[in-house]
Amino acid sequence: MTDYLIAPSILSADFARLGEEVDSVLAAGADVVHFDVMDNHYVPNLTVGPMVCKALRKHGVTAPIDVHLMVKPVDRLIGDFIEAGASWITFHPEASEHIDRSLQMIRDGGCKAGLVFNPATPLHYLDYVMDKLDVILLMSVNPGFGGQRFIPGTLDKLREARQRIDASGYAIRLEIDGGVTVDNIAEIAAAGADTFVAGSAIFNTNDYQATIEKMRSNLKH
Ligand code: DX5
Ligand code: ZN
Q: Can you tell me which residues bind substrate (predicted)?
């Protein structure tokens, strides 16, 4: 059976109470903390950096922290996030001058490495780096904001990415980010995803545990 992971995105959390919010989603059954880093340059929004990741570790968060870098340039922040306690680090290939090197830096720092694809970014960036990947993250919205609608064409792209992963023989997670809800999670899993980022669908509900349980139960059917 596929081992599905649910990764709430802190972008939709109450930032004034971030530590408590992360504790709450983890207590509610989340597997991974999805940490969106935006630089007002690669994407039109500005969020948080390594200091906040470090603060979550200091607060006592032991779950994996999945750092999604929406920044350009990429490399300098990789070292900072490794230091800050990141577990996974993913970046957008078109934002890196040297994709292979960025991936290697992440793995050399002991983190899991991944590439992120915007809705219209072709998967050919995968061609020569499958052996250096632990995760492939497909964006199902244009990056920058939470609460957007899932772009349906991403389902075909998921199927294509799933085929590439299976053909490669590597253990690479297939993560989806953007517009994931209780209602569409089953269809997204059927297309090949095994790791689900969800921001507004979790944080905009009152009962995180009930929402995560519904997601898991929909993944079983
Ligand atoms: C968007 C971010 C997402 C975002 C998802 O650029 O990468 O992680 O928080 O939010 P929802 O789940 O609300 O679409
Ligand atoms: Zn994200």
A: 9, 68, 144-147, 177-179, 199-200
**Third-level CATH fold of 5-220:** TIM Barrel (3.20.20)
Angle at 40 (CA atoms; ends 113, 178), nearest 5 degrees: 55
Is 66 near ligand 1, meaning CB less than 6 Å away? no
The three-state secondary structure class of 119 is coil
Domain ranges of the chain: 5-220
Q: Is 31 a catalytic residue?
A: no
Query: How many angstroms separate the Cα of 145 from the Cα of each of 21, 24, 26, 82, 83?
Result: 19, 22, 22, 25, 26
The tens digit of pLDDT for each residue in 5-44 reads 999 999 999 999 999 999 999 999 999 999 999 999 999 9
Please pick, among 39, 66, 134, 177, the residue that the annotation labels catalytic: 177
